Amino acid sequence: MNLMIKNITLKPYLQTHMRNPQKIPQFYLWLRQQMSIHNLTQAELGRQIGVSKSTMSLWLKGERLPSATNNERLALALNKAKTLKPHIQIQG
């Protein structure tokens, strides 16, 4: 199953980077960017996907990659955050 997050297919991305561990920091940067876009803290995202603070910390430092199960949970949480994000319109 390929998971789409903002036009990014997560599964091939992670398969590539599992073979090239030196590129793990790119995942860290992408995850930080997604958290910023969706206004999610490390604690909030960890709670939503059911992982500990230490696990989130390892991902965000680029020391570990999420498991397949956590990849799915992460994709679902970020897609949910995207749909729940309020739209602000300025009327002039």
Give an overview of the whole structure.
By secondary structure, this protein is mostly helical. It has one domain (4-83): lambda repressor-like DNA-binding domains (434 Repressor (Amino-terminal Domain), Orthogonal Bundle). It has helices at 10-19, 24-37, 42-49, 53-60, 68-84; strands spanning 4-5, 8-9. Helix 3 (42-49) packs across helix 4 (53-60). The protein is globular and about 30 Å long. Residues 1-9 and 86-90 have low confidence and may be disordered.
How would you sum up this structure in a few lines?
This protein has helices at 10-19, 24-37, 42-49, 53-60, 68-84; strands at residues 4-5, 8-9.
Strand order of the largest sheet: 1-2
* Helix count, DSSP H or I runs of 4 or more residues: 5
Q: What is the count of β-strands?
A: 2
Question: What portion of residues belong to β-strands?
Answer: under 5%
Residue share in helix: 55-70%
**CATH fold descriptor:** 434 Repressor (Amino-terminal Domain)
Distance between the termini: 45 Å
How can the largest sheet be summarized? 2 strands, antiparallel
Task: List the main descriptive attributes of the protein structure presented here.
92 residues, mainly alpha, 434 Repressor (Amino-terminal Domain), globular, disordered C terminus
